[in-house]
Amino acid sequence: MRIVSGMRPTGKLHLGHYLGVIKNWLELQSSEECFFFVADWHALTNRYTDTKDLKDNIKDLVRDWVACGIDPTKSTIFLQSSVKEHAELSLLFGMITPKSWLELNPSYKDLKFNLYFQYVRDFLLGKGIKVDEELLKSTIHEAFYYKKEVDFESIKSKLLDTGLKEESVSDMIQNLTEGEIGKKIDTFGFFGYPVLMASDILVYKAETVPVGEDQLPHVEITREIARKFNRLYNEIFPLPKALLTETSKILGIDGRKMSKSYNNAIYLFDTPEELSKKVLSMKTDPQRVKKSDPGRPEVCNVYTYHTVFSSKETVSSIYEGCKNAQIGCIECKRTMLENLERFLEPVREKRKSISDDDIHRILKSGKDRAQQIAKQTLEEVRNCMNLWQD
Questions:
Q1: Which ranges of 69-105 does DSSP label H, i.e. alpha helix?
Q2: CB 76 within 8 A of CB 25
Q3: At what angle do helices 188-202 and 216-232 cross, to 10 degrees?
Q4: DSSP letter string over 105-151?
Q5: Angstrom distances, CA of residue 346 to CA of 111, 122, 138, 256, 359
Q6: 121 is in which domain, residue-wise?
Q7: Same domain, 11 and 95
């Protein structure tokens, strides 16, 4: 079975990335034909204004994958932009893809929603206004989803209710619609990235695509594009199936979703000192004030980490010790820290041994393998579309 999956080079990987993506890749590469690509073109869809770290991020991402166990002798690891057939197939798919398919794509709306939310949140924080993030998300969601156009007047009205001056809110709304944020969102690349994603998958005639539940619409658009192409020209593309991956149970150190933007992530290659500082600052059961208070491990973020990184015996001991107030939160954290460090230390050490030359060799070898298949696919596509070939 041929598997295709990719990841954008946008910065350091954290535990959520490992448990939600890489762990699944490790299992797949042992039994399937896997193609894992660094999606550098996709990184430009909303980060095209700042590319100064892109090359370093590409190298770091490959180094991280290999350090975590992705084996270039078992899996094809390559850079998206080095296989130009991705772009050519995307162009040809764009000719047959209705605009309405892209407008209705929930993932497109999600990405757009997140950009609006982050901008408004940062604007309010910059004004010294305490942000109720759930209320803010709800406000933007109501003004955005299930509508053809964003209801900026609704956002403006609710922001004025917080006590902001109308001049400030008007400037912010104008920037959302006409300024940097509006221009950042309303680009051809941002709007059409599902078409490029379809070409990433179909250029290798992938049978299966491992995705999280929120990415299912991407796979469905890919299937629709493949169906339409096959109907119009020739039956050359399979209809890839989504392989649902388990969402990471791990939250950030503050109990929210682990995210770089929240500054709450534990990165795979944090130093032991950084790791210790983060773990010891983690939130626990808010109702457990004193060590003598019985705890509720089922609502404690630290206990969730134990279920992933500690042995069954330790998990059982921690559960009973917390419920019966036999151990305190600091002791619980220190035990988890030891087990998490035991997991990360060999990965950290392996990463140090991977040179830039190793990365170049891996990407060159992967490109050669990937391009061989991609060229064959494009030759078939050009033939059945009656395009001129020299």
A1: 85-94, 99-103
A2: no
A3: 70
A4: -HHHHHHHHHHHHHHHHHHHHHTT----HHHHHHHHHHHHTTSSS--
A5: 35, 38, 43, 28, 19
A6: 105-185
A7: yes
Look at residue 262 and tell me whether its pLDDT is greater than 90: no
Instruction: Please spell the DSSP secondary structure of 147-202, one letter per residue.
Output: SSS--HHHHHHHHHTTT--HHHHHHHHHHHHTSHHHHHHSSHHHHHHHHHHHHHHH
Judged against a pLDDT cut of 60, whether residue 151 lies above it is answered with: yes
Number of C-beta neighbours around residue 5 at 10 A: 23
194-206 as b/e: b if 16+ CB within 10 A: bbbbbbbbbbbbb
- Give the position of tokens 């309303």: 186
Q: Are residues 285 and 300 in the same domain?
A: yes
Closest C-alpha to 248, from 298, 332, 309, 295: 309
Provide the number of structural domains found in the chain. Answer: 3
**SS3 per residue for 45-68:** CCCCCCCCCHHHHHHHHHHHHHHH
Query: Which of the pair, 50 or 66, is modelled with greater confidence?
Result: 66
Nearest in space to 325 (alpha carbons), one of 281, 379, 289, 377: 289
List of residues 6+ apart from 363 with CB closer than 8 A: 38, 62, 77, 78, 79, 82
Is pLDDT at 152 greater than 90 in this prediction? no
Please indicate, yes or no, if residue 146 is contained in any of the structural domains.
yes
Instruction: Specify whether 157 is located in the same domain as 245.
Output: no
**b/e burial code for range 71-100 (CB count within 10 A of at least 16 → b):** ebebbbbbbbbbbebbebbbebbbeebeee
Distance in angstroms (rounded) separating the CA atoms of residues 252 and 140: 24
Same structural domain for residues 10 and 89? Answer: yes
CATH of residue 241: 3.40.50.620
Decide: 318 and 306 in contact? Cβ < 8 Å.
yes
Select the more confidently predicted residue: 55 or 189.
55
117 shares a domain with 230 = no
Exposure of 176 by Cβ count < 10 A (0-12 exposed, 13-18 middle, 19+ buried)? Answer: buried
